[in-house]
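Researcher: First entry.
Model:
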Amino acid sequence: MNDSLRLADIACPPLFPPRHGYLECSRPIDEIADGPNGGSLKITNRPGSQCILKCPTGYRLEGKFSKICGTTGEWIGDENGTCIRYPQPKLQCPTSVNVELHPNETETTTVRLRRPETDVSWERDVQVEPYWVKKDSFALPLGSLNVSYSAKHPVSKLHTECNFLINVLPGSPPRVDFCPDTQVYTIEGRHQSVKATWEEPVFSDNVGVSPGTDFGAGSHLITYEAHDDAEWKSKCVFKIVVNVNPEQQQQPTAQSHFQLPILYNRFYF
């Protein structure tokens, strides 16, 4: 009886939650009494009262926060927990997408998009407008289509949006901005070939090829071809002509069995 009376006089001080959080507490039933004349309830943290930290929507608990009021009137337990905000979902849209009609297409073309980068579930948490753009491929006519992606975090409900355009353009081959003229070289001395160099052709979609190959005597046809994603193609064609110094056309001596290879119509792609 004396112990009960003594505990009835013991109470822990008010407990305040960390920023952004709130406390959910449970207390012994008999410690909650009516106020004067049946007025408002007075709640006291008697020994045995327990409080845990809760976080609102958009926040999550990091660490631990669980306290219990002890018989000495002091709170016991962990209190290093805090409520931290969930990050916005990651969603990286592509830049505006330009596609061309293929050579055999006149009205529509098939568009295939890479999925945007995100850290939530593509199937569950990402919405697309128009909805059918979420398919792996779809047909579009000439013109522009505005596409909107929205990603929602499954717990915090925070969301991120991004937009881009799909432009369907009439098909056209790459433009040839520069194509070399015929290159003429002469083999000198006792060499069997000559190193030909040229300024590379330039297309609207530049391609990388390597001049600097050895060519034997003769005429060599050089062909550059550029093509785009819609399979439209353009070519640049020019010749490398390798002549032999007339002084080397004499009959070889007994000490020299040197012969020049004559190569015609060699093609390079």
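Researcher: Second entry.
Model:
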Amino acid sequence: MQAISNALHGQESENFQEAIRVLDIILRQHAAKQGCLLVRQSYFHNDPKNFADVGGGVLGCRDVSTTMIITPGPVVDFLIANQNVRDPFSLDWAKAKRTLKNLRIKTSPSNQEFKITGLSEFPCKEQMFKLKVKGGVDDATEEVTVYDYFVNHRNIQLRYSADLPCINVGKPKRPTFFPLEALSTLQRASLVEKSRQKPQERMRGLTDVDYGCSAEEF
């Protein structure tokens, strides 16, 4: 505790680095509870005035630093905006695969979070997987399509996913597929880029923020 007290007063001690790490954890935990977006060592307020649409389904978020985040919403809307096309059937899926790689999404209606690992080889109406048979003997399974499973087993209506690739959130040997319509992007950073603010602007940004939730690189 003495090392933490010394650090708060700008005084170095034997355990200075450990004290700094403890303070960093406390600040990050508090910032997260306040709804801030944490990107490496920077915190960004979830305040509309800090966001600017930079196109391609991406928002610029600026406090004292600047970061690029994915616009929250349906994955299909993000892809359409990102590629500037009219509808999902006009998407370049080779490009989409690169764009979606490692993007974090949530499923509907369960709201579970996953990280995208790739796309299915076949469209949803053809992509098969093994489904455990209810009441079956031991590990009995049957093969069903992703489309059939979501429509007939989960009672989720799919308007256009049948002819589009599925999103894979599983591992290479154990893929887990979801139709495009069942997924939404989360507000996650896609690219960290320092802003080119002048010193006066950076100081103004620091004095305007709520320090209960803000810190640039600690």
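Model: Note on the second entry: The first strand starts at residue 37 and ends at 39.
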